[in-house]
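Board notes, transcribed. Complex of a protein with zinc ion.
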Amino acid sequence: MTWAATGRSGGVSEAPWSSLNLSATVGDDPEHVQANRRTAAALVGAAHLCVLDARHGATVQVATGAGIAAGADGVVTREHGLALLALAADCVPVVLADPDAGVIAAAHCGWRGLGAGIIDATVRQMRALGATDIIAISGPAICAACYPVGQDCIDELRAGLPPQVLARVARRTGDQWRVDVRAGVHLQLQAHGVQVRGIARCTFEDAGLFSYRRDAVTGRHGMIVVQ
Ligand SMILES: [Zn+2]
């Protein structure tokens, strides 16, 4: 398995997408996005790329070739040389692999996906394709201190998460709730026996990363994996 995390620098897009924007759905020039995706694929030595089209749901697809995994927040493959790319700008992009079984995956998880079960669904699909010993790396994401949320978010999470997980994900200071999506992703992975480590950078605080909360109209960085 080879993986990489991208940031803002090293691409050809102009402001407000400057410069390594990997999303084709945020208003950027499509030719710039294609050039940036080739740059991202080259980081892991891949010629073929399958890009997650994030929807904040729990749908997982099995990829057999290059293209867009439309409508999915998780994608799994056994194909060698096919890179998987999860995009984000505050949400948590994750790459997973069982190198011995030859199964890799990429997923996108925000607070909605956390409650909807995208992490569970991705691990289950990997297991269905033969994975047993899975490792995962979570990418840069917004930290809890920078991520105040409304009561509606907490209500939805309460419906989707066990109380002991919710207690680690949602924090209340005065009247304000804050959510640590990365902590939730790690807890859910560990519950499946997945060894996970994270890139502890906050997208909102780090000018070298894209942040939707900070900039609204902006690009997407990503996590990419190939075998
Ligand atoms: Zn932060």
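The pocket of zinc ion is lined by residues 142-143, 145-146, 202, 204-205 (CB under 6 Å). The chain has a mean pLDDT of 97.
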